[in-house]
Amino acid sequence: MKYYENVLGLIGRTPLVKINRLAFGIKATVLAKMEQLNPGASVKDRIGVAMIDAAEREGVLKPGGTIVEATSGNTGIGLALVAAVRGYRCIFVMTDKASVEKRRYLKALGADVVVTPASAKPGTPDHYISTAQRIAAETPNSFYPNQYAHPANPEAHYRTTGPELWEQTEGRITHFVAGLGTGGSISGTGRFLKEKSSAVRIIGADPYGSVFKTYKETGQLVAATPYLVEGIGQEIIPENVHIKYVDEIINVTDRESFEASRQLGKVEGIFCGGSTGTNFVAALRAARHLDENGVVVFIVCDTGEHYLTKHHSDEWMKEKRLLEPQKITAGLINETKNLNSPKTLVSVSPHERVADVLAKMNELALSYIPVLEEGKSVGAVRENRVLARALDKRELLESPVSDVMDVSFPVVDVDDSAADVTRQLRSSPAVLVEEYGRITGIITRHDVLDSPMGNPRE
Ligand SMILES: Cc1ncc(COP(=O)(O)O)c(C=O)c1O
To answer: Could you read off the pLDDT of 41-83 as tens digits, one per residue?
Structure first.
């Protein structure tokens, strides 16, 4: 029989996959190291088991003990897998910047999760690292791995990730690209590759706003500014960042990182997180000037499933003003319009009584309502016009809506652009949204003006 003793046997030995369509025009070979295929779906499974093995060996983690760690999520998942298999309890401290998917994932693996504000500064009591340290100090029989300083973190990559890349590329790797969170991946893998060949270039991919690029280039620590990519970049230099193994740091914007991550899913079928997008942008920049002998490997840090409510959601991208204007469609405006608007389209049939329709509009605070027949728009009721007519002719209240309705609002397709919607709204107070031949939504002038995107023409 062929089987693993437990799920931890699945960690590591991840394959390389060539980037094809997105590397168009590039002579070098660009390869993705598929770390999202680890059992906890990220590169951090490697260090979870390594830090726990070390703690067990050193006797600092005893049977029935509690693991307490500060994490952007993935290290927590790696640790929680080990805890599940070996019977430890886990408490993880994450900031409110981390995706809700990672938080739920950790809870599903049996961990307790404490959330702190991302705005708390390092060293203050609310900061996620200070909070984890305090909880560890207050919890009997606990172990605080401290991935930012634990030597088993870079060591795990020195022992596994580095040798795997050397072997998989038959020693032909010329560039290695990784982000820096704790610094473990780049320091450990970088050290191994540099020992094999000093010619291998180690490139750090870092969000604009993080401190690493200036630190590498000047030795100075500048003030960090916020960015949205999770898991990489820092405000301080963790002990596990061994910058001597890093040749160059490339800064990448949130917009570039998220767009690259989305493209990797759509065009290469590699469904990944935002930090993978950061790495990929840096990898393409490094590969651009290389000839056929170039072999550039970047890390796929984790799965896109951790970010379904984040950058893989058009709604989130639109809210963060990261979606390119041409990608803001009528369908997206309809889905993300004013939270107070009804979520499903409210419509009436041409046969309904005017009095009933007015009562419905009053109840739902609607000024306009489309009149639909078999999914098609046949007219529109404008409350103020119908009320004005009913004042003079009360019996109209008993008539069918077809007797008082106006012409239909213009219809746009779900995929029509925000500019098309705006154009129609100049002459009509509302437009209807059609999807596969059925009217499924309505957009008013208010919906466009109140949208988090503001004026969609910008
Ligand atoms: C999503 C993600 N990408 C990249 C990294 C960076 O890896 P490292 O901590 O080895 O520098 C992390 C680490 O937290 C992460 O969570």
So the answer is: 999 999 999 999 999 999 999 999 999 999 989 999 999 999 9
CA of residue 186 to ligand 1 center, whole Å: 10
The mean pLDDT of 137-166, rounded to a whole number, is 97
Q: What is the pLDDT of residue 447?
A: 84
Q: Are residues 293 and 378 in the same domain?
A: no
Co-location of 213 and 287 in the same domain: yes
Cα–Cα dist 183/69, whole Å = 16
What's the rounded Cα separation, in Å, for the pair 177 and 283?
Answer: 6
- As a whole number of angstroms, the distance between CA 412 and CA 421 comes to 7
What CATH number should be reported for the domain holding residue 200?
3.40.50.1100
Q: Quick one: pLDDT band at residue 452, thresholds 50, 70, 90?
A: very low
How much is the pTM? 0.85
pLDDT per residue as tens digits for the range 375-401: 899 999 999 999 999 999 999 999 999
Question: Do 251 and 120 belong to one domain?
Answer: no
How many domains would you assign to the chain? Answer: 3
- Output the ligand 1 site: residues, CB below 6 A: 44, 72, 74-75, 179-185, 230-232, 273, 275, 301-302
| Top mutation candidate among 232, 239, 254 for ligand 1, by most atoms within 8 Å of CB | 232
For ligand 1, the distance from its centroid to the CA atom of residue 88, given in whole angstroms, is 23
- Asked if the structure places residue 2 within a domain, the reply is no
- Encode pLDDT of 295-305 as tens digits: 999 999 999 99
19, 159: one domain: yes
Measured torsion, CA atoms of residues 172, 174, 179, 180, in degrees rounded to the nearest 10: 100
Q: Are 171 and 199 within one domain?
A: yes
In this structure, the answer to whether residues 282 and 331 fall within a common structural domain is no
Q: Quick one: tokens of 226?
A: 């916020």
Mutate which of 38, 44, 203, 272 for ligand 1 pocket (most atoms within 8 A of beta carbon): 44
The per-type count for the chain, helices as H runs and strands as E runs, is: 16, 15
Tell me: do 263 and 191 sit in the same domain. Answer: yes
333-375 pLDDT per residue, tens: 888 876 666 668 899 999 999 999 999 999 998 999 999 999 8
The predicted structure's pLDDT at residue 29: 98
Cα 299 to averaged position of ligand 1 atoms, centre (Å):
10
**The domain containing residue 101 runs over which residues?**
45-143
| Residue in 133, 89, 128 with CA at minimum distance from that of residue 111 | 89
44 is catalytic: yes
User: Does 402 lie in the same domain as 358?
Assistant: yes
